[in-house]
DNA sequence: CTTTAAAATGTAAACGCTTAACTCTTAAAA
DNA sequence: TTTTAAGAGTTAAGCGTTTACATTTTAAAG
């Protein structure tokens, strides 16, 4: 382990003061071009890199954003992670990655983030207690929820309008002539699943459909598979299945196929997320596309505005998305 | 943004010196239980958390490990990320996540890691120039390559024995009566793909099979699809296809199915990675399982040993893995 | 009731940086 | 020429910790 080279070393080599070295590395400092060049050359020669830890300490700005993510194996989230990375990178932020092990982000995970003085935290598919929110707030850490919200909502959030998406999916299925609809939900403590189902049910009821068989598929492939099985065993006449996310839809489709149902001839399936695989030929899943790019754009904007104090009140932004039609839904008219 | 509460604040409230507060939070410090409790209570009341940035500065230990990952959308890697997170978390490390945008990890990505004084860097599916390795070395940063290695190899690495896996896959295909074999490779600058193909070819040649049609599928679904198409157009008699990773195998299978080939009756397909989806019914892919848990275990051990100076020479650990038989290969005997 | 060692606490010096305050040049304005 | 001001560079004060060292307290031993 070689000694770290510090600004002082560079200063000595270049024959200037250590503070000049600091200035040479600062965009907005007044320093002559000649001297800056000298210093930069010396730095180059020594392989000097400013120490972000020391800088963070004095400026009180770590330039680190925490990202909390739970179900990394759901292909929707790697995509989200990738895009957050790219946007935040552009803004000069680093990412501290937290893979939340529980539904609810744990006390110690919150503490870790705080200890490292992250400037902000993005929560994707995990739940945040209001205690946790307060803890972040007390420490001046901005929080933005991605596709989640919590009732007491003192936090920024950007959310796909799950309720209206649920409605429109219901409407679409009705319009294409389906009458026996089933729903495979995610965990009942996630606002995403809840809202999607509320919208869906809302529309169906308006059209006089009261009985809507449901099963919890826990947002996983296996869950979707099992839920479809239960559903079909008890309600053989179902002609369309709405799954609260794509992975569950894949599970459901695989169950249906192995059980001898033809998709979409016997039963239509519709998903949510428009994950890459939805386009793969064995599935060709009709699904709801969340405008991920836009959502991330907004989430980062919210985050930065909050960090830079250009924000008074927490904001909740809703975005819509649209239906992507593929081959898993049949027009029964 | 509330003022951060510091050890000094706690010290004042508890009526002790600031250094005692520090000691109260250190496992191995000599401090009376009574006083420790007092301090911890005061800290609790104020919501104090030690500042890891300041600690890092003085101890010269950030307790951050960088993870560099490129193709996050290949389901193999989220799994890897999750497991690394969990292991490193146990050891009290945080993760700084870098989503490398290019095949080769870029100069500025290296710099970022160095600026934040990460103690070590784990490189998964990205390439590291020896210049980059040197830069890390000069800064006393441990590097371990996960499933990659580079020729000048001054770095630790843990690697699935891709060569022998390739051999055994070749043997398996031969044993099951295949004679016309094709290969879909990953990018030609990845040691993983290269070794797998070398082993595969090696075995086939030993059995007198000289002509082995190949296409580069770039380790992606689309690439696998296109590669299979090209391969079949020019070599209609192929009866088995070895794909250097699972996602390409999925692409290839989807092409084959849409083109009217039956798997495995007309053509067998074999993958590599044993990603979750390989078990899904539309694919039921026979594939090579890398012992991911073991590999990560070893990688982390290498990392920690290196960080703690308990290591003289860089080590390269090879692990084997095993074939997982599903339904995509037919015994033609 | 000393004496002595050990344990607990306090004091103060770093760690590597940024930045306010100050000094010294240099050149333009008077 | 003198005055003034802007520009360039330096000095030094932190940021919130850990930790070596000094000092005080406590407990054990004589």
Automatic annotation (TrEMBL), chains A, B:
InterPro entries with a match to the protein in the record: HTH_LacI, Lambda_DNA-bd_dom_sf, Peripla_BP/Lac1_sug-bd_dom, Peripla_BP_I
GO molecular function, a single term: DNA binding
Superkingdom of origin: Bacteria
Pfam family, one: Peripla_BP_1
Gene3D superfamilies attached to this UniProt entry: 3.40.50.2300, lambda repressor-like DNA-binding domains (1.10.260.40)
SMART domains: HTH_LACI (SM00354)
Residue ranges occupied by any HTH lacI-type domain in the UniProt entry: 5-59
Keywords tagged on the record: DNA-binding, Repressor, Transcription, Transcription regulation
Protein name: LacI family DNA-binding transcriptional regulator
Organism, scientific name: Fictibacillus fluitans
